[in-house]
Amino acid sequence: MSMGLQARMVQTQKLAPRMIQSMEILQLPMLALQERIEQEMNENPLLEQQETEPAPEEGDLPPSADNRSEDEKELVVEDSGDNSDDFERLQNMVSELPNTFDDSFRRSSGRMQEEADRRHDLMANAQSRPESLNDFLLHQLAELDIDDDVERIAERIISTLDARDGGYLRTPLADLLPSDHTAENYEVAERALQVVQSLEPTGIAARSLSECLLMQLRPEFEHFEEMEKLISSHLEDLAANRLPQIQKATGYSIELIQTVRAELQILNPKPGAAFMETYVPNVTPDIILEQDENGEYKITLDDDRVPSLYISEYYRRRLQDQSCTEEEREYIKRKINSAQWLIESIEQRRSTLTKVAEAIVAHQKKFFDEGPEAIEPLKMQQIAEKVGVHVTTVSRAVNDKWMQTPRGIIPLHRLFVGGTQTDDGEDVAWDTIRLKLQELIDSEDKRDPLSDESLVKKLAEEGMTVARRTVTKYRKRMGIPSSRQRKDWSLAKK
C-alpha cells in the first residue's frame, strides 16, 4: 500500500438545479402548478404578477377634484398663508393611524382573488366525509335497551368491521375477549354478535358469504326454501355455473336453478360496502382540443389561471443604487436568479406540453374522428423522437395531465397504448383487440361458449395474432367469466 496523487479523467452526469426545477414544473398538473407559484411568490419578494385592471365602462369617469372627499384632496402648500387647514387635516390623519405599522407583504386584489379561486378548487377536490359504517351501527346500538356487558362486546365487534371488506366479521369472537375468558363470557359475546347482526344493513357482521346471504333471506320470497338450500350447500357450484351437479344433488330442474340464481342476485354480498368513502376528483384539463371550421384539430393550453410573472422593477433599481450594501446586493441577485428560473421553467412547460400534445393528436387523429375502436398503437419513445426530447420528458409532460376533447375529458396517458401486428403488417392497438374480443363473446352461442383457445383462432381469422395467455389476461381484466361460467344450460338441453 502506498499514498500518492494521480490524475484521471472521469465523465459523470449531473443535473443542474435549474434543470431539476424545470422538470419538476413540467410534471405538475394545473392545480399543483398554481400552488407552486403561490408558494414561490410568498417566498420570493422579487416576484410579482401582472394584473389586468378591468376597463372602465362607458360613462364611468375618474373622480374630479370637485367631487373628491376632503381627505382625498391633494395637499398644496402655498408660500403665502399659514396653511392651517392643511396641517389640521394632516393631524387628523396621523391620529387615525394604528400605533404599530404592519410592513408585511400586502397582497393585491388580484392575488386575493387568485387565492380565493385556489381555495375553491381545493374545496371542490376535498374528499367528502359521509357517516361511516361504524358510526351508523353505533348510533343504532345506542337506541337499544341491552345489558352493559353485551353492549361493550357489541361495540368491540363494530370496531372491527371494515366497509372496504363489505362489513364482514373477520375477527374470531374469542379474540375480542380476555385471554382468561369463561364460557359465560363467550355466551355474552354470541349474544352481542346477534345484536350487531340485527342492525341495518341486513347481513352486517356476517362471518362468511353464505351466512351473509342467509341473513338476508325472507320467508316471503317465492323460492325461499330453494334459495336457502342453494346458499347453504351449493354456493360454490352456483358461482362456477355447475348447474348439472346441482341438479343431480337436489333434483331441481335446470330452469328452476336458473330462476333461483336470478333471485339470489337481489341479495347484497357486501352490505357494508355502501359506506365506503368515495373520492371523485374535480379534474382541471391542462389542454383543450378543438376542431376549426375546416375540421383541423387545434391545441391550446388552459393556463389562463396561471399568472404572468415578472421581476419587481423596484428591486432592479435597488440593485443599481449606490447605497445598496453588498449583503443586500447578493440577496437581490440570488432572488432574481430564482425568479428568472421559475419564469423560464413555466415558459418551457408551456412549450413542451404544447409540442407533445400536438404530436399525440396528430398520431391519434383517427381516435378523435372515429372513436376508441380506431386508436392506434403509440409509445412515448415515438413522441420523444418526433418532438426531439428525451422519453422521460414526455413521461413527465403527460403525467397527471388531462385533455378536454370533443369526445370528453381524457387523461393524456390514455392515448399511449401497446399493440401488435396483423398478418398484413398493420399495427393494431390492444384496445382494438379488446373491443374485438368483447364483440366475439357477445355474439357467441351461449349453448357452447367460445373457449380461450377458440377466441385465439377467431382473432387469427381477423388477422390478429394473439397468444392464448394474452386472451385469458384481457378476458379477466374485462370481468368476463370463463366459457363454463358463460354457458346457458337451459339452452344446452334444447
TrEMBL record:
Biased composition annotated in UniProt, kind: Basic and acidic residues: 67-76
Single Gene Ontology MF annotation: nucleotidyltransferase activity
Gene3D superfamilies from the UniProt entry: Homeodomain-like, RNA polymerase sigma-54 factor, core-binding domain
Domain RNA polymerase sigma factor 54 core-binding: 124-315
Compositionally biased tracts (Acidic residues): 50-60
Keywords: DNA-binding, DNA-directed RNA polymerase, Nucleotidyltransferase, Sigma factor, Transcription, Transcription regulation, Transferase
A single GO cellular-component term on record: DNA-directed RNA polymerase complex
Domain RNA polymerase sigma factor 54 DNA-binding: 330-487
Residue span of region Disordered: 49-86, 94-113
GO biological process: DNA-templated transcription initiation
Signal peptide range: none
InterPro entries: RNA_pol_sigma_54, RNA_pol_sigma_54_core-bd, RNA_pol_sigma_54_DNA-bd, RpoN_core-bd_sf
Assigned protein family: Belongs to the sigma-54 factor family.
Record's protein name: RNA polymerase sigma-54 factor
